[in-house]
Amino acid sequence: MVENLFLICAIFAFFSLGATLGLLTRGHKYHSYFTYIPSSFASFLTITLSLIIIFSESTHLTFFNIQHLFDFEIFIDGVSAFFLLIIGLISFAVSIYSLSYSKKFDDKKNNSALGMLFNVFIISMVLVVISNNVFFFLIFWELMSLTSFFLVIYEHENKNNLKSGLTYLVMTHLGTGFIFASFILMYTQTGSFSFDSFRDITIIPQHVKDIAFVLAFVGFGTKAGMVPLHIWLPKAHPSAPSNVSALMSAVMLKIAIYGIVRCIFDFNAVDGSTDYVWLGMGMIIIGSISALVGILYALVENDIKRALAFSSIENVGIIFIGLGLSIVFAAFHLQALSVLAFIASMFHVLNHSIFKGLLFMTAGSIHYSTHTKNIEELGGLIKKMPWTAMMFLIGSIAIIGLPPLNGFISEWLTLQSLLAVFQIPSNILQVSLAFAILAFALTIGLAGATFVRLFGITFLSKGRSTKAVNAIEVPKFMLIGKAILASSCILLGILPFIGMNLIVSAFNLPYMSSSPFETISITNTTDSNFASLMMPGVLVILASVFVGVFVVVRIIGGKTKTIKYGTWDCGFGNLSEKTQYTATSLADPIRRIFGVFYKPHNDIDVDFYTKENSYFKKSIHVISTTKNVFDEKMYGKTISGSLFVLNKIRKIQSGKVNAYILYIMITLIALLLFVGFGAHE
Amino acid sequence: MSDFSMLEYGLGTLQALLIIVLSPLIVGVMRKIKAKSQKRTGSGIFQPYYDIIKLLRKDEIVSDQSSWIFRYTPWINFVSTASAAFFIPVFLVYSPFGVVGDILLVVGLFALGRFFTMLAGLDVASSFGGLGSSREMMVSALLEPALFMTIFVIALFYGGTNISTIVSSANDMSILIVPGVLFALIAFFIIMMAETGKLPFDNPSTHLELTMIHESMILEYSGKNLALMEWSHAIKQMILFTLFVDIFFTWNFVEQISLVGISIGILFFIAKVSALASFTAFIETRVAKWRLFRVSDLIAMAISSSMIGVIFFFL
Q1: Number of domain units in chain A
Q2: B13, exposed or middle or buried, with CB in 10 Å at 0-12, 13-18, 19+?
Q3: Which of B237, B160, B88, B104 is nearest to A535 (CA)?
């Protein structure tokens, strides 16, 4: 208990030290060390604290009271600790990465603001998950939103960044509004702002509970980037410096998931009543749509960071599918399946943090050495930046859910819980959940295509511009930061029980936790083996097959030479980098198949030598575009509609004194009438 | 989990080796049947073995544009595909390695190999590779839902995604009487044709860039690497054929381990797979290559067929 308090104080002290030193040592040669070494210390302590709490009991501390209304209470149970672990792990890696990465901004502008905001941003996220009171939760939530807003517009010379920052600011406050409303509604029932009272209360009318759920879900969902409230995400995440993008995508989205888990699973233990089926189904539907929409946009995106941001939407969708399934199963008293779906969802939370942090840091490295985020200008980087390429490859394999890395485990668990829907005693739900499987499977397939395209175009073949040709490998701290997360991907993939045990003891789930070398097994209703997976065994098989085939090839084939020669060029010679497939053409078949969604459009401009002869073309200029349905149809219509109404309202404010006197008259008469009628009753 | 004896593990390894070793034979049989039905003599059924051995002994030419991805992809592809063979029952009703992974793992291992093959296609900086990868991206992305829906139907009817569970309960039931399974069979057949690059989807026997998907990705390979690529493609086809006969035609599995029983089991297995291979080859001689953008219609048919299977189960 005392050690934990000491640890918490140390965490705050180190983060504050980083923030202060970041401001004070502005322009110093070792500025980045002063800023990011304390934050990496603090992150390391956060990991320690969370592990202590996960494997022991919860910590409950009250710091100070202001008239008993706003107790600042620190409450760390397993749920908080699990998310603290995510914050700690990712910020640790990102802090080390930033030691070198922040040098990018050294000569450009004031680097101190970045370091200060970086530290404050992490500390605000830590505070959000450990506060136990509506008031402080919202204050820190707001602090988190605002610091991240300032980080998004950090490179404010670019007008686009300012615009996306504004979108972010509006959308995040819309979300906060919903969260606020949900908490106020709970307050009207409990009469207290403390989360303890939310937890303890038993008698809340069902409809109030439902409304509170929906409000909280919409509010936190906005922050998590669920479709259709996602439009800020692909704008804001790429605009920020890459170390911050990594934090935003890998950690901040998970804080929103934390909010949902707290509100739905903790405050109102969702249990055996079919009243909650609609909530679970709603989450599954929104999750499936988010997953599909996110990955479809990621597939055609040419900006590498935007593509990664879209893929975050996809992964949040997968997390929602797991959470929703958990609720639906619980509603039908299928306890074991509910736990399975919940583990799947939380495992995906952990995994997505790790590989998305890794991928954003890699994207930052690419930007660091090539100064471009457009993959059409890249290519051939695997020879210039071999280590970065390796990390990106590991991240890609993990995120598209291929064995033997961690993404496979969580997607396998999610799919297994989806396949178990036949145990739900309702035909309508069974058939509609079959469609969720369809959406989920399509998402996985498209994710594979997306990352083939991102990796292939960025790292393989010839460089498509001088920027890519002149690229060099990034400094070693950036590589170390990425290597930490890459090795976590491998470790969690090969020994998934490390992650599963963590989740089981953090959330106190009724699930057998066992040694890391165990088999994950799911039994059928008749107790036969429905499915099982033993990753260490898979690795043994892979290794022995490799050894076997190596020996066979050596015995039959013997020693042969390898000759290096140019790529086959059909005899024309001199293959140029222009003849390669581009990112756009690579995605073209899928773009055509899903034409209804993308609405692809080619503007073809042909220039002839002479007007009369249309066979000899001088040049052909093609601009290929896709439309973003959500931006244009939904938000565009909403914005133009409200502007129209507001313009009408603006006529009231004419600036003529006599008009204002008229308004006063009308108001007076209205008030008199109101009072007059009021007096009658 | 029941513990298996060393003998059973040995038999399990034998099952995997059967798939790996016999896979080129099935390719040869299919080529022979296609040749015969086109009134050609065709090469012998052992020709694929000679090809592989010949290629293994040849020097190889590697593009100077390529990276380690290109050079190690054949190994990764072969290892992941051949490892999948360990989970497939061949003459026993189970695989002793079945505990280690289920059908989703097999799908994942295939996808791993395909992921690297697509990257290798892009690695050589020629437009052929890109063309193949681009088309493969589309086909594989669309196949995924069809595949998972079919697995869902099979898991519903046979109570699991563990292949040993599926095969043993399929063995207990009488075959093909349930309409849902029949629809799953149609879907699985379409998926099998697409995954192995068979005719309405892909025409691997031409070297015309307009028709090919798989071939254009591996166009730059030569020598040892080409041998590994070809062999792993054959293994993948063999695994899918074996799964097909395991799930839908469950005749004569060995219940009691004895030398005679196993020999009969192996013979039956070879007969079943050859029959399926002949049927597939026959279909291939009867259809033309479909336009690339019509391939999605065929896959949509597989998806709806398996969806009907799901509905049949819940009715």
Answers
A1: 1
A2: middle
A3: B104
What pLDDT was estimated at residue A269? 62
Question: Rounded to 5 degrees, what angle do the CA atoms A352, A354, A355 make?
Answer: 70
Does residue A232 belong to any structural domain of this protein? no
Q: 3-state class of B24 per DSSP?
A: helix
ipTM attached to this prediction: 0.94
Residue A411, amino acid = E
Residues of chain A with pLDDT under 50: 66
How confident is the model over B300-307, as a mean pLDDT?
92
Residue A385: inside a domain, yes or no?
Answer: yes
pLDDT for A492 equals: 92
Pairing between β-strand A59-64 and β-strand A520-523 as defined by DSSP bridges: unpaired
What's residue B1's pLDDT? Answer: 41
Distance of CA A177 to the CA centre of its chain: 21
Which two three-digit tokens encode residue B162? 């563990």
Residue A422 pLDDT: 85
The residue extents of the domains of chain B are 6-314
**pTM for this model (two decimals):** 0.93
Give residues 157 to 216 of B whose Cβ lies within 8 Å of A: 159-162, 164-165
Whether A501 is in a domain gets the answer yes
What would the two tokens of residue A279 be? 């909530």
Nearest residue of chain B to residue A541 (CA atoms): B83
DSSP track, A16-46: HHHHHHHHHTTT-TTHHHHHHHHHHHHHHHH
What's the distance, CA A240 to chain centroid?
14
Q: What is the mean pLDDT of chain B?
A: 87
Contact B140 A445 (CB under 8 A): yes
Q: Which chain B residues are closer than 8 Å to A415 by Cβ?
A: 104, 148
Under an 8 A CB cutoff, do B123 and A529 touch? no
pLDDT in the model for residue A2: 66
Mean pLDDT value across residues B67-90? 93
Please name the residues in contact with B230: beta carbons below 8 A apart, sequence gap of 6 or more: B48, B51, B52, B55
In a domain, residue A388? The reply is: yes
- DSSP assigned state of A551: H
Cα A675 to chain center, whole Å?
54
Domain containing A308 equals 271-518
The confidence score (pLDDT) of residue A651 equals 82
3-state secondary structure of A624: strand
Q: Evaluate whether A356 touches A399 at the Cβ level (below 8 Å).
A: yes
The single-letter DSSP state of residue A424 is S
What is the reported pLDDT for A94? 94
Residues 135-154 of B with CB under 8 A from A: 135, 137-138, 140-145, 147-149, 151-152
SS (H, E, C) A558-599: CCCCEEEECCCCCCCCCCCHHHCCCHHHHCHHHHHHCHHHHC
Minimum distance, in Å, between the CA of residue A609 and any CA atom of chain B: 28
